[in-house]
Structure prediction request, 410 residues.
Amino acid sequence: MEKTVNGFAGGQHIAGAPLTIANTASVSPELLKNSIDENIVRIRPMSTPIDQLSRCAGARSCDSMTVEYYSVDTKATETTLAVDVTDGNISDYGNDVVFNIKVKDAIFDPSETVLFPELKDPNGALITAYVTESSTDGSITLLVTSGTSDALLNAKKGAKIVRMGRAATELDVQTAQFQALPQKKSNTCQIFKMQVEQSTLQKLAGKEVPWGFSDQEEAAVIDMRLGMEKNFLFGTGKKIYDRAKNEDVYLTGGIWGQTDNSFTFNPATLSENDLISICARAFTGNNGSKRKILIAGTGLMERLSKLQFSRVVYGDQSFVKWGIEFREIRSNFGSLYVLHSEVFDQCGHADDGFIIDPDYITKYVHIPFSVEKLDLRSSGQRNTEAVVLTEASCLVLRYPNAHLRLISQA
Prediction:
């Protein structure tokens, strides 16, 4: 009789039965996962780049269908004036004057320096200042350090203010505290399943081509991965109740909705200048890597292929990484690995694209990809061989601003 016994060091052992895939999975579910994934990633990797990337980059196991994770962002580096600056904002500060102004976002601390990139004094000098006081409502007190103080007068609401470095005194030991607190988010793992059956007569029948059960399994994996790809991209995270089955159904949220970082463009007039702006947006304002992946729908890919490049370089040669063949667009801001995906077309995003930072995307797996054989003949249901493919997983963006949605808008 088969049983599981504990070892001296906390391990588990199978007694009373030979070691099989089934009892191995029950005792050590992670043991066979890698070899299965290695086989899966060889099946049409170009058709499912998101799923392919998540498998090659590795996954984290989770003990619940609902995954809670923390996403961290960097402190904002710029904001704008919340109100116009007038004479009423000026007050004495010893032999100098200071400006008591209000900004849209309370991102400044005392001892920081700031820059007004859109303001210049009569001599053409940019305006910089030192923060002497700040409050949580966005009110700050500035001592102008470059340019004339009059240059700040009549500055209008919406003028940009850039946060620069701190400036401490000789005797300063401490400074205003800085904390980067991650924000808790959640996603749900979706149970993806695919069942393949073959009757006994079908198995025994002669065939003009060598088409067997393993060929059907491969076709099923392709279809399953295509479905997963669509959910990983555009799915909506939710838990619903199936009245027919009297059970909850978990739906995973796609990465398209996990970032608000978007770039809108007109597909009819897409130019090299737009591409440079896309690269600037994708590689600045965050701490992401300088190599990212652009997955494009057919319309966007077609327009990119027709561009004449002079200031950016579209790599003439393709290269393979993670089992996927890419073309490269190189710019002064960073490099984009470009790949066409028909999944975007099927989901109504033919002219759109998604730029992914592979260093900040994580796959959580509640049930690793597994293959289970069902004995339907012994149970008296059908005279067939049946195999069920299962995986419960989800994708999350760890650093949302490192990724960019490209949204077409005529």
Observations:
- The first strand starts at residue 3 and ends at 6.
